[in-house]
Amino acid sequence: MEPEPVLTTDISHSLKTDVGFDDLNLSDVMLAALESAGYEYPTPIQAGLIPRVLEGVDVVGQARTGTGKTAAFAIPILERLLSRKKVQSPQAIILTPTRELAVQVRDEVVKLAKGRKADCVALYGGKPIRGQIEKLRAHPQIVVGTPGRVIDHLSRRTLDLSDLRFVVLDEADRMLDIGFRPDIEKILRQCPSERQTLLLSATVPPPIARLAQRYMRDPESLDFSPAEMTVDTIEQFYYTVDPERKFDLLVRLLKREKPQQALVFCRTKRGSEKIYRRLSKLTQHVACLNGDMEQNKRDRVMSEFRAGQTRVLVATDIVGRGIDVSGISHIINYDMPQFSDDYVHRVGRTGRMGREGVAYSFVMPEEGKELTRIEQRINRLLKRDEMPGFDFTRPATIDTAAPQTPEEEPPPPPPSLGGRKKKYRRAL
Question: Are 216 and 247 in the same domain?
């Protein structure tokens, strides 16, 4: 039997809180860009990763999303770019599992590149390839892309990796989960051997460790994961409910909670569309996001969600990791996830950057084992919630508590989610 791979160095970080960007040996241009972007202090992963990348070390960084990892690798890469006069082809490529995450990373890079001549282009499916080819002809220094579309450009010879100096595998565990490993390896084999490789992942199972051993040079492992898989600021509840009563429970929960923004997770594309259609009859502030949608529509949905125009977004796991919106106050697992790690990533959509958040899971009577596995995974018991006056087992009927008008305006969000939760805790 092949032994489990072991990475070269394993450093578990509990970094000082008094580290500032001024302490990280960054240029005045970068410090000005950080100030303009509203970055006051580095997060632990930024304070730990930036110095190592600046020193040219290959790094495996373990951290959940929402911890500032994009800036952690974008800042040092921007600092170490050579001028376009010296290198005209891309110097860095960042691979991401989803289109949404590719766009998000590109936007972050553009924001942090303020004040310097550094162009970044995103390559992903669902958009005409001709427009992306034109952007590549303008010689961007940084390319962000999904593996499939990057392979497409490589096969067309519209993407030149010969001068590449940096490779980033962002959310590597998710890319392997959805079957991108062959594409990733094909891309890595076409990259120059003299390069710096960074791998970011929420978890580092054996397949990720093997990938690091094979394609990285003496990688240093930096673990920024919290002791618990979910942060303390996220309260987590569950309901035991018959499948026929789940939608009525969702409506009742949304009316009670009045979320600033809620993300409702369904297991299937068809399920997400069904829930969206039913909710859209009750409020106009709802949208749907799944892998079957055309890219233009997905971009528009995400833009409206980030702008706060959409209050409730119904989504599937395939796009869930591409959603990084700080205003999400509630996560609702309408369908229980298939794997425990997916629960961790779903819940991680709220409580971003230390903000408070709350998660609710709808557990069908036969899903007790799934709930137990999740609790073992996060080393924490979910609290059973109550909904006074609601029958969780009665066959679905017209819910008199549900909104009765086709487009009822939802009430304004509460001034503070934290205040509401304290009041509710007292009521328990």
Answer: no
